[in-house]
Amino acid sequence: MNKPFEQVRFVMVHPSHPGNVGAAARAIKTMGFHDLCLVAPRFPDVLEQPDAQSLASGATDVLASVRIVPSLEDALAPVTLAFALTARARVLGPPVCDIREAAQISCQHIQDTSNARVAVVLGTERSGLTNDDVALCQRVCHIPANPEYSSLNVAQALQLAAWELRYTLASAASVPLLPSTEGQAHEGDQAAPGEKVQAFMTHWEQAITEVGFLDPAHPKKLMPRMRHMFGRNALSHDEVDMLRGLCTAMIKAARKR
């Protein structure tokens, strides 16, 4: 696991639905995180509940390592920067930012602080975070959403937060953002050499002549334009082979006719 990803904790305060806990475990694992903490969940055995196990779906290792604590103060004890993720505006409270800004602030904090630990705190499914919960955090964080209906399921909100943090932390650490085959490129995907492309162009000219698309007596600029078109696309070995198969089929069809 990349070091900055180990410095982020996701905290669910008083979760009442085991399925959301399982979904949360899966959500953070897909983004490269592992630290999930529950504050006084409704069910003491929430981690063993069938819904939690089934919705974790491949992230049961994260579920097995979940920390359960009695209070938000305990969950935030090792944390140096906490974001209260909420949909409601607060008249009083810490400074406000959106989730993307929160990810950027978190990344900078991790880079600048030797013992940095960042937390994203989410409230109960029904009522969210209380004002007392928010007061324990250094920032209030919002997910920009439809103002007419901004209520996200807690696991969905956690997924969005984990995604924004992953993108920012991975970019800063030069961690690849796109999947890789982790091997050599397939030979057929390599660019075809000039002699192979020219052989195809000869075959192509023959095929379009056979089907009557090219009139050799009045060729105009058809073939030069087609050469430019195919040249711009840097044909691969497999593409040339495919197009030559098309040429052969065109010629056979024309001669049968």
TrEMBL record:
Q: Which InterPro entries match?
A: Alpha/beta_knot_MTases (IPR029028), RNA_MeTrfase_TrmJ/LasT (IPR004384), SpoU_MeTrfase (IPR001537), tRNA_m1G_MTases_N (IPR029026)
Query: What are the alphabetically sorted keywords of the record?
Result: Methyltransferase, S-adenosyl-L-methionine, Transferase
Span of domain tRNA/rRNA methyltransferase SpoU type: 8-162
Please give the superkingdom of this protein's source: Bacteria
Q: A Pfam family in this protein?
A: SpoU_methylase
Which GO terms label this protein's molecular function in UniProt?
A: RNA binding; RNA methyltransferase activity
An example Gene Ontology cellular component term from the record?
cytosol
Annotated GO biological processes are: tRNA nucleoside ribose methylation
- Which PANTHER family does the UniProt record give? TRNA (CYTIDINE_URIDINE-2'-O-)-METHYLTRANSFERASE TRMJ, TRNA/RRNA METHYLTRANSFERASE
Q: Which family does it belong to?
A: Belongs to the class IV-like SAM-binding methyltransferase superfamily. RNA methyltransferase TrmH family.
Name of this protein: RNA methyltransferase
Q: What is the lineage of its organism?
A: Bacteria, Pseudomonadati, Pseudomonadota, Betaproteobacteria, Burkholderiales
